[in-house]
Amino acid sequence: MRLTQSVDETKRNFMKWWRGEDFGRPLFNLTSRPPRPPGAPRPVRRRTAGQPFRLDAAQRYENIKRNFDESTLYGDTLPFTGISMGVGCMAAFLGCEPVFADDTTWMNPIVDESVGISSLGRLTYDPDNFWWAEHLRETGKLAKLCRDEGFIVTIPDILENFDILGLLCGSQNMCYYLMDEPELVADYINQIDDLYFEYFDRLYDLIRDEGGGNGSLFNIWSEKRTLKIQCDVAVFLSPKQFDDLVIPSFEKQLSRIDNSLYHLDGPDAIRYLDSILTLKNLKALQFTPGDGNPPPEKEIWYPIYDKVRAAGKSIWVYATGDDPIDDSRKLIERYGTAGVYLLYRNQDEEFAKRLSDAAYNGFR
Asked: Which residues pair with 29 in a beta bridge?
């Protein structure tokens, strides 16, 4: 693994990005990795009985070490890795049975449709839940394996509020319950809020660095407690339901987090942007346009970033288009270099050097 700047400098830059400070260029994440030779076999994903490869600390360590051994990490790229069965693992901790595919995980709802949402009973922390025990054990193993290598183990994608309730009930059922029993739905959101840090705190204690910092999904790190948050199920909610139920849930969650990034997923979620930006403790926002739409760095999405920056929050942009240097230059011309984090796809070495040089020069 070759880094083009020190980890300490990268971490200082992350904190400047969270605070919206200008250090002369954007924060950026860029990796160059040699292509696999023609005909070379793909690495074998070794599976252990009773768990997917994503929960195998030894296999995750082997994969990440092989990948980073062959890579050059430019700019503010940190070597992140983590243990997770997939999005919304808290649902499995609360009783859902996961169904594993090669690239995703599904959760089988546990609600009894003949009874309704009350069939969930009282949601409680179960220290003996199989999937929770697997996460704790394998996250601890991975943290020990990675500590000497300098790899940063991230918090799994626990998820929160309505996204977890949607997995427990099924999204369609949840919508019915929201119409028929809104007070009971609100009570379950509160229960999920109360349980969230039963899981976060225990995982955080395993992965935190000596100063209390941690990494999270979406390649973010801070010197204090940090987290990616989202509410994809919001597309099923009215703006009033979002304001009445989701925003208070996030306010409670973020009161215990120092630095956070909101993952705004898809054009249908844009209608909640103004409400999301009222979250006082939210520090940054990332937007995913969805399949078939222009990449996140294109001008069509500038109105989103205009609002985010006007609210004093930082932006996180995954530049996936065909001309990342020109697209990044246009972004920087509009927003400046303060509070901008740019991520790029893996590039060949020659182009990665050009892109890195442009980023270090602030795309001037």
From this structure: 75, 343
